[in-house]
Amino acid sequence: MGTAIYYTAERATLLTEKEQEDVISIVDKYNESFKYIEEAESFDLYAYDDSESDVILAGATKVPSSIDIEVLMYSINHWLHCLTEIRLVVTDAEWHVHVDDTDAVWVDDRWHMEK
User: How far apart are CA 49 and CA 8, in angstroms?
Assistant: First the structure.
């Protein structure tokens, strides 16, 4: 059984062209620098019909199911830092991020895990 990070951003306005470009750039940067890409999925954003809801960005990333706690923690940390950069680009959105059943919340642009 693996661990996954799920993320959704909602707001009334769609992503601007600049936001889309910035998000793609951030995702590419983090996918390229991820040490365990052969053992896990890359950061992924879902394709969705933007006319049906206020969801402007959503996705899920499975982290390596290795029993090595360092690999697991590195992976979670890596992808949450990626989400931190995306959150700084996609402003005024309501974010929902969780690692399996645990919410990840941001305080002063730093993420924390909460039960």
Answer: 14
Assess contact for 81 and 47: CB atoms under 8 A.
no
Strands 3-10 vs 110-114: parallel, antiparallel or unpaired: unpaired
**Residue written as token pair 């090595």:** 68
In angstroms, the Cα distances linking 114 to 91, 102, 106, 111 are 22, 6, 10, 10
pLDDT tens digits, one per residue of 36-84: 877 777 888 886 555 667 889 999 998 877 668 888 888 889 999 999 9
| Predicted model pTM | 0.85
Rg (C-alpha) for the chain, rounded Å, is: 14
- Pick from 105, 73, 94: which is nearest to 13 by CA? 94
